Amino acid sequence: MTRAGLAVVTIAFAVLACAAAPGLYLRDSGELTTAAFTLGVAHETGFALWCLLGKAAALVPLGEVALRVNLLSALAGAIAAWLTYRLVRDAAGGDAAAEVGGAGAAALLVAGLTFSKSSTVAEVYAPTAAAIALALFLLRRAAAGDRAAGPLLALVGGLSLGLHAQLRILVGPACAIWALVRLRRGDRWPVLAPIALALGAAVVAYLPLRAARSPAADWADPRTLGAVLDHLSAARIRRAYADQILTHDPRALGERLYAFARQVEAQLGVPSLLAAAGGLAWLVRRRETRVLGVVLAVMLASDALYSAWVNPMGLEDLQDGVPTALGLALAAGCGIAAASRRLGARAAPWACGALALGVCLPAALADLDAKLSLGPEAGRWTRAALAEAPPRALALTTSDDLSAGILYEQAVAGARPDVTALVRQQLWDGALVAQRIARAGGEVRDPFAGRSERERIAGEDELLAQLLHRELGARAILWEPGEGAPPEGVLEPGVPVEPLVAAAPPLPAARPFAAAVDEWLAPGGDPLVRRLAANALSSLGRLYLQRGDETRAGALFEAALGARPEDAVAATDLAVVKARRGDFAGARDLCTRVLEREPGRVVARVNRGRYRLALGELDGAAADFAAARARAPREPAPLVGLARVALQRNDRPEAARRAHEALELAPADPEARALAAELKIRP
Fold first, then answer.
1. What does the pLDDT look like over 218-251, one tens digit per residue?
2. What is residue 554's DSSP assignment?
3. Can you give the pTM of this predicted structure?
4. In which region does residue 64 sit, left (phi positive, over 0), alpha (psi from -120 to 50) or beta (all else)?
């Protein structure tokens, strides 16, 4: 390693380590850290290699376990930055300008928000980015005639089964095609590639071996070959988000691609995109770098499609775009090195440095608060829930933040083993429910034993009712406020516990709850913390709204917007409060602001149509309902709205037709049934 390379990796690690979260973080970080610490099975696709690396990091005696695993991400990010530097330096010719271009590419990579965030919390994306960079480095070496690089590239491909699927999806096919081309041209190393690939893929054996030990983190219990294949192919995630992934709606796909492009541009800046475009063209035009340029172009296009079509759920959480940040940094580094040479050999390094500064500075200054504001909020939030929970409480959670946080506190920190935490979305997994309750000293049978997974999911409400009735007399039941309301008549009044609350009256007082959320989370620059605060306030507000307390509900929605002004859910809910108070114009305007930011939000579109209908704006209402109908053809609400517009226009036949369509879609929908009764249509 050269002195310049050593400086790149050292500075990158120092920057990322200083910005790393000091402990437990939000979303999947708690679950992933627990899976690493306990050598368990993480959520799909398992991340076996990451768990092994995380376990090694957890053994380092430095701070709490969560910090150690966060620093693993920082180290992986620094390695990715160094490999980016090496790739640009080698591809651009190895002279002084290439050195400066490589350093600029590494700086651009670290400066982007998505990559920076992935490299400062416990996540799989930074190690995966390092593996992608290593694969591109080996590809470049193999294309240059290094016979050992090809089998090593195949080994990395096999090991990718233990990391995020981005590596094998975005880079794997292009590398495989190139290897076949080299085989046809007489190279012998592709013959050894399957052996190296299988050797690396052996890391998958970790999943059934560890699942058999029933660790604290055991997602889907992949003990059999079929279960392992389901886990590696993210079968549960694909079923859970079937309405969002692989959309057939060109408009929705286009909007997601546009949102992804806007996110990349906002984080990295226009200068970096121009430099990357020039660098990519330069790489493809030169014969000695053409393979790398083509693979980079394929990776960038594939990552955009993956983010918009396969995993649109990850856009808001900054879980998409890490390979794009890597690819753009590589291309931009080559672009500025190539452009600077036009000024001559003596001026090229200085010109390259100036160009690199102009490219990196906008990315470094963008989202600065979000990059430097990672704090202890996740730990405070989780510990607040556990500290006030009564002995042997049963906590029903719904968010990844609290569910994963409680798992970490119990399995890693050893806190409150008497509390049973169940994720409401996983209640259909009766075996998991029984396992969690047994660990807390209780006993419950799997009420769905012998039924298929589809039958279990369909009977989730039945399982919830059975579970709560069985457990009610023995322990306090706490409910994390979320999208769903507590079951009527199931939960008895209890002592309010925030952020978990007893789900029957009395609810926590709105003002103290808002003050507590502000104390625990102190919403600042971190977008995920601000969203968590807004979600907590909005969720409790919806419970108040369901009980008819518009005053407290409105106050909580306004507090949510104070924590996160762009929160679409809080704004839509506040519009409902305004409409109930007769302020239809204010409600319409709130929904309009939501739709300006998120035109695909169907609930806001339908609600604005209702408010326009109440204001007599029939054309606008019809346009909103028609747009909602186009986006959600299986939902009855847009059809009911169109029928109401037809009634206002005295077109009863059209109203009856729309009502019939709504009833065919959802015979039990209360709005459709009320409309049918009004029109004297038999359901």
1. 887 788 888 888 888 888 777 777 777 888 888 8
2. H
3. 0.86
4. beta
